[in-house]
Design a protein that fits this description.
- The structure is a single chain.
- The chain is mostly helical.
- The protein has two domains: 177 residues, Growth Hormone, Chain: A, CATH 1.20.1250; 207 residues, MFS general substrate transporter like domains (Growth Hormone, Chain: A), CATH 1.20.1250.
- The longest helix has 48 residues.
- The relative contact order is 0.14.
């Protein structure tokens, strides 16, 4: 197996793990009887780990361990932890296991990037293909559950003849109610198995030694990145990134439950075994959107491209709010996920690489990553369970229209703020480009 193929498989497994358990956990936790505050604590294990990981992965792991060995250890222990989540139902055990998994998993996101960059001959041309493995892994994680969440007793009773009839019978008999709730534990089991596979696969990855800090290198370069917030347009983008991350995480918090809720209760009525595949439509379109991102940036510019990405969220939540009785339209509108991610989050990463001084560029990426994976998700996960269960659900029925208008409004405000206040200097003009802050 060639090096680039190994790196691609590494990315597939890396994001398969996250994609397996994340989409359905938001509906699984209430079914275990966890209170909204308990759900928030469990869901916030990931963003807390993202904030911790900014310092740990950049300042400690990268400089003290061979990357492939750190990856193997993290996925061995973290894999056992997420595997355990499938077999516990009390809050304390679930929370501790999820926290252990996230604290070990989140740093591996940057570690896999480090392994990839260190072992590619032409990173500029090769990394996009290698990183696409992550999107493929997320998509692949959705599809096994189409056949896991199946009422096999009903399939056996139907006694279908032939493989085509058998597949049709399986897809026509999804699990429902308590049976579906119970079967959701397999999302954690599948994630754990994938993590253990990656732990083993890490041992055949190219050796990537620890990166020792160079002489004169700022030990805490992220301090320098924080200082860049004194530039108004950087601060505006940082705050808008927080708002967009909040909206993005509202999507993950509520979409699975919305899709699975029967139409008579205000939802879409998608069968339980099709919820994850429907949500994966967004990742499929993300791949296509990334192909046109460069051309879009060239024609629309930074600000307009990012505004389109933010308004994609507003449009999707508006469709959720006002047209929930149209399953086909709800499925089609999942494609906006690709636009939302590529036109905003991917564009932010590219913008930071283009505008920030080289000596703090990596830490500046981490600064925005804290908003994207950390603070934005932390706030969303803290209030989304409460909004869903306590504010917009009365007498067992959820007001999905009111619920979805919240992130729709936030996304609209974020787009307006970006349009009015985000004025970056012209690229290539040394007089107005960001200068490295003085010590």
């Amino acid at each position: 197996m060639g090096v680039r193929l190994k790196l691609f498989v590494m990315m597939v497994l890396q994001f398969f793990i996250w994609g397996a358990w994340l989409p359905l956990i938001f509906g699984y936790l209430p079914g275990l009887g966890f209170a909204p505050w308990q759900q928030s604590m469990i869901l916030n294990a990931f963003p807390v780990a993202a904030i911790v990981g900014m310092f740990f992965s950049n300042q400690f792991a990268d400089r003290n361990f061979a990357a492939e060995k750190f990856l193997a250890f993290s996925h061995l222990v973290g894999g056992l932890a997420i595997l355990g989540c499938g077999f516990v139902t009390d809050f304390t055990s679930f929370f501790v296991l999820m926290l252990v998994h996230c604290l070990l998993y989140v740093p591996t996101i940057s570690i896999t990037n480090s392994i990839a960059f260190a072992n590619m001959k032409d990173a500029q041309n090769e990394f996009g293909i290698v990183r696409m493995g992550g999107t493929v892994g997320w998509i692949l994680a959705a599809w096994p559950f189409t056949f896991i969440f199946v009422n096999w007793e009903a399939v056996q009773a139907a006694n279908p003849g032939g493989i085509v009839a058998w597949i049709g019978s399986a897809l026509a008999n999804p699990l429902q109610g308590e049976a579906l709730q119970s079967a959701t534990k397999w999302t954690f089991v599948v994630a754990g198995i994938a993590s253990l596979l990656l732990a083993a696969f890490s041992l055949v990855l190219p050796h990537t030694p620890a990166k020792k800090a160079e002489k004169g290198e700022e030990t805490f370069a992220w301090f320098e990145a924080v200082k860049l917030l004194k530039h108004p347009f950087v601060l505006v983008l940082w705050l808008v990134t927080f708002m967009d991350s909040f909206v993005h995480n509202c999507y993950f918090n509520w979409t699975g439950q919305f899709l699975g809720t029967p139409q008579e209760a205000g939802g879409v009525g998608i069968p339980g075994n099709w919820i994850m595949p429907v949500m994966s439509v967004g990742q499929l379109f993300e791949i296509l959107t990334m192909f046109v991102l460069g051309m879009t940036l060239k024609n629309l510019g930074w600000r307009t491209t990012m505004i389109v990405g933010i308004l994609g969220h507003a449009a999707r939540f508006a469709v959720y709010a006002f047209l929930p009785q149209s399953p086909v339209l709800i499925i089609v509108v999942q494609m906006l996920h690709g636009i939302c991610y590529a036109f905003f989050f991917a564009t932010v990463y590219i913008f930071v690489d283009a505008y920030f001084p080289k000596n703090v560029r990596n830490s500046a990426q981490g600064l925005f990553n804290v908003m994207i994976l950390g603070v934005g998700a932390l706030v969303a996960n803290s209030i989304c369970p409460w909004l869903f269960q306590e504010v917009f659900t009365q007498n067992g029925k959820t007001d999905f229209r009111g619920l979805f208008l919240v992130p729709c409004f936030v996304a609209t405000v974020a787009a307006i703020a970006l349009a009015i206040f985000f004025h970056p200097p012209k690229s290539g003009n040394e007089d107005v480009s960001i200068s490295a802050p003085s010590h």
